[in-house]
Amino acid sequence: MSDDEADPELLELLRQSLGLGKKNGPPPAPETKVLQNARFIFDNAIDVALDPRSTKAAARTIWQQMQEKHYSTKSWSAHELHPKSKDEGTVDFILTMDLLNFSFWSDETDESKRFAIEYRGQKWTGYWSLVAALQRALDEDIPITSPDFWLDEDALTEDVLRHVFRSATDEQIPLFEERLECLREAGRVLDEKFDGSFINCIYDANQSAAALVNLLAENFACFRDEALFDGRKVRFYKRAQILVADLWASFEGESFGEFHDIENITMFADYRIPQILNQLGCLLYSPPLESQIRRLQPIEGGSTREIEIRGASIWCVELIRQEINRLHSESQTATNSSRHSLDIDRNGQQISNLEAKTAAMTISDGKTQDENENGNGNSRVNAILIDFFLYDTMKELERDGRETIPHHRTRSIWY
Ligand SMILES: Nc1nc2c(c(CN[C@H]3C=C[C@H](O)[C@@H]3O)cn2[C@@H]2O[C@H](COP(=O)(O)O)[C@@H](O)[C@H]2O)c(=O)[nH]1
Fold it and tell me: At what angle do helices 304-339 and 34-43 cross, to 10 degrees?
């Protein structure tokens, strides 16, 4: 080799160290930044704090009750009003629902006077009033879940939407105009960018939950749930995230609900989960903030206090999720070690430890232990199921008159 030719091996080492000419590796996994923003808010919060001991205790209680109730994705479709079919109609229903899934709380102190939807012989309030109104509209052959309908100002007139949300009381649905605008905007964006169908948004996300959340926030202003905190942009994306979660739960992790990174979805920062986290002793308010909440005084959307409530709640559920998975791993270890003791198989024959371990992993119907645990193919409890469980539990407490603190009052289209 002549003196002026460089040693090829040395060249390659140099290229690698400089990252030159490297084949393009896989693209970085999409992320929403919601969880890291929540951590930032929690670390810098003044009026909201978390109690570690109560959070640990709450995790244990939540996990025990989730197991007792066999809480899983199947719980979603079990709700009386939720759609049961696993088809495009349900995808459209879930999109419509989560475009409008915000701000049902009433200014009425007399419960009997608050906005309510009469459907199937019952009066539905809160979130369920929305689901009932949509089901009732479909029963009346109003195509309320169709983006083409949302676009057509001669078909979806203000009067038609008022008919859809007609109340069983004198109080009307809050933020009616904003809800109409959410539908109009979504109809326009779907028509202009996604060939008129939300299914194309799901395809574009390539089975990534984070990518679908980001696609919704980037393309639809009414999903762009962000704020400024300490001079930094923070993301909550509550309705975009719950839309992905509702798809995942409704389709039980398959078909239009299949996401390989579903664990990237956080708790949904609404007005019910902070309430139950405070009731459980996990989320603590400063005396002035607690007084504002107890006196039902409005907390301005985008204010520092509101952002701290939402961010700290997301972080609190993350800590609960981590503790539940620690408990789960501990219980798995304990179960596995007990398998090294004498094992009798289903036919009462003593079998070797290795066989026992293998046999125990495939339960009678051929599913693995994990699939049997929560019915969606993984043993880990994620923030979605914890969140759904907490919301449903808070609604039971409300029904039984066992709220110990009101939920905070922020009138907002974000939650
Ligand atoms: N974080 C979180 N927020 C949730 C839900 C749900 C309902 N999800 C169903 C689907 C699966 C679950 O099993 C639930 O049955 C509604 N919300 C929010 O609460 C508020 C409505 O409160 P109220 O007016 O009292 O009904 C409003 O901001 C609404 O957006 C949830 O699950 N998580």
Answer: 110
Pick the residue whose CA is nearest to atom 13 on ligand 1: 388
* Of 127, 173, 225, best ligand 1 pocket probe by most atoms within 8 Å of the beta carbon: 127
ipTM for the predicted complex: 0.99
CA-proximal residue: ligand 1, atom 5 (nearest): 391
Asked if residue 19 is part of any domain, the answer here is: no
Question: Looking at the whole model, is its pTM more than 0.95?
Answer: no
pLDDT in tens, 298-314: 999 999 999 999 999 99
Q: Which ligand 1 atom is at minimum distance from the Cα of 269?
A: 1
Ligand 1 contacts CB of residue 389 (under 6 A): no
Query: Range of 280's domain?
Result: 29-103+175-399
Overall domain count for the chain: 1
Give a yes or no: residue 118 inside a domain.
Answer: no
Give a yes or no: residue 213 inside a domain. yes
> Is residue 317 one of the residues assigned to a domain?
yes
